[in-house]
Design a protein that fits this description.
By secondary structure, the chain is of the alpha+beta class. Helices cover 18% and strands 39% of the residues. The strands form two sheets. A four-stranded antiparallel beta sheet has the order 1-2-7-6, with no helix packed on it. The protein is flat.
Length: 155
């Protein structure tokens, strides 16, 4: 029937869009998007999603961001009881004068990520360290887990 063919085709188109969308936005890989054909990779770098690792111990949640080429001054970090936000804004300017030709270029790149944390934390006690392009954040848990059993005397 005619309508069956239309809906089958629409379903196939939806599957193809889903496949393309998932291929384009591989959220969990941290890899850059491919540069356009003939491009020099700058566009891909612009869209790069920095690698992020979240781990936890009995007492803290640790978050690690790889931010190569970023300066400490370009990073804004916010920690809430249940989440962490990072915003990076990198600006570059270039001025040239050559035989009466003037050039002024201004470029900026930004990155924002909001991540829910696996456990509730104490934001006021968070500590962050940025070294060699790696930002490490340690946030104490609001309710640390007790990993040892304690024997209780019965009266």
């Amino acid at each position: 029937m005619y309508f069956d063919d239309i809906f089958d085709e629409m379903y196939e188109m939806q599957k193809e869009f889903d496949r393309l969308f998932n291929r384009l936005y591989r959220i969990d890989t941290g890899k850059a998007l491919p540069a356009p054909k003939g491009g020099n990779g700058e566009l891909a770098t612009f869209f790069r999603r920095p690698t992020t690792d979240i781990t936890e111990t009995d007492k803290a949640v640790n978050v690690r961001f790889e931010l190569p080429g970023v300066k400490k001054e370009d990073i804004q970090l916010n920690v809430g009881p249940k989440d962490i936000e990072i915003k990076v804004e990198k600006k570059a300017e270039r001025k040239e004068e050559n035989r009466g030709v003037y050039l002024y270029e201004s470029r900026s790149q930004s990155f924002y990520r909001h991540i829910p944390l696996p456990k509730e934390v104490v934001p006021d006690k968070a500590e962050a360290k940025f070294e060699n392009g790696v930002l490490e954040v340690e946030i104490p848990k609001a309710h640390p887990e007790i990993s040892e059993k304690k024997k209780i005397a019965i009266k």
